[in-house]
Write a structure and sequence with these properties.
Number of helices of chain B: 9
CATH architecture of chain A: Roll
Oligomer: heterodimer
Radius of gyration of chain A: 11 Å
Largest sheet of chain B: 3 strands, parallel
Strand content of chain A: 35-45%
Helix content of chain A: under 10%
Number of strands of chain B: 10
Helix content of chain B: 25-40%
Structural class of chain A: mainly beta
CATH class of chain A: Alpha Beta
Order of helices and strands of chain A: EEHEEE
CATH superfamily of chain A: Beta-grasp domain
Number of domains of chain A: 1
Shape of chain A: globular
Order of helices and strands of chain B: EEEHEHEHEHEHEHEHEHH
Strand order of the largest sheet of chain A: 2-1-5-3-4
Largest sheet of chain A: 5 strands, mixed
Strand content of chain B: 15-25%
Structural class of chain B: alpha/beta
CATH topology of chain A: Ubiquitin-like (UB roll)
Distance between the termini of chain B: 58 Å
Largest interface: A-B, 27 and 40 residues
Number of helices of chain A: 1
Strand order of the largest sheet of chain B: 3-10-9
Chain lengths: ~70, ~260
Amino acid sequence: MKIIVNDKVMNCADAIDLAFIPTLLQCNPDNIAMALNQTVIHKQAWSTTQLKEQDRIDVFQVVAGG
Amino acid sequence: MLTIANKTFTSRLFTGTGKFRCVDSMFKAIQASGSQLVTLAMKRVEHVSKPDETLARLRQLPIELLPNTSGATNAKQAIYAANLARAVLDTHWVKLEIHPDQRYLLPDPMETLIAAEQLVKEGFVVLPYCGADPVLCKRLEEVGCAAVMPLAAPIGSNRGLLTKEFLRIIIEQANIPVIVDAGIGKPSEAMAAMEMGVDAILVNTAIATAHDPIRMAAVFAQSIKTGRDAFEAGLPRTHLTALASSPLTQFLSDPACT
């Protein structure tokens, strides 16, 4: 199925949950926050949040800043 | 001792983490600064992103993390960024920062007030970066902000206390801490702000881009402590004319002395 991660269309298996996204992006899950269709999903709920076709996922990381 | 919301701080120097040459330099400079409140930013993950050690290193320090909403150009985006930051950092503190204009990075007062009110309702401890506008600072206080963070000069400009006279009014009127944020370029400017009665100062660029950031962090800490001590000791009034410090008896020509 197709999902949209940070505005980029990505192909992935049909039965995946939000917890798979850090692997997909090869980033550290401790350092990121995710929102599904503009709703922030807390880390505890990632593995129980199933994704479906055309879902939009925003992935943010903590970086240095003033 | 400075109290913001339910937290107390012995250091009145807050620091940012941007613009350092490397994570190690940032880590050591923050250690040297003695800062207990340190800002971070949120950024969308790029599809090919390098690992970032900033957060892992900061978690080794005895500090509170203060995520900002930099990059937001309106209230809606800032509220979204604050919620994302809360999810990853497990803090409900946020430095609210909304600047649509990239040239001067001046904060949007209307959007900042709208976002501040909403974030307070959502349970955030809101520290808004704002213009040095005494009326806006009162409005931000009224909607429940825990402090106000008026600018001294544009972000990263190192131009010092350009807003000095307005900061004086803000300090006079505020019932919440006033933290000068942005534009402080020299320790002497930080000291001058503290002498005026500012509660704390946030410094990033002036430390991070110094030739020796670790030493500069320590110097800012000293100057801020000295400025605060001077304020608490009570600075004397100024006068337009001289007021003699020595006796003015004209003893050489005074008949009583001959």
